[in-house]
Specification:
This protein is α/β, with parallel strands linked by helices. The protein contains 2 helices and 3 strands.
């Protein structure tokens, strides 16, 4: 399954990413904080080497 998770670097978003990663899903992760997002990706890759992760730092709340 392919899943998009915003706010994936911490809190509920990261908790959801962990659950879906354990199931071997392909995840597109987004967060405003790029360094925290890359740390989350590293953790998730270790947790689930069979999953595929795409990351993008973005502020989806921005009106610009």
């Amino acid at each position: 399954m392919r899943i998009v998770i915003t706010g994936a670097s911490r809190g509920i978003g990261l908790a959801m990413a962990r659950i879906f990663a354990r199931e071997g899903n392909h995840l597109f992760l987004s967060s405003k904080n790029e360094s925290a997002l890359l740390a989350a990706k590293q953790e998730l890759t270790t947790l689930s080497p069979g999953s595929v992760f795409y990351t993008r730092a973005a502020d989806l709340g921005s009106k610009a």
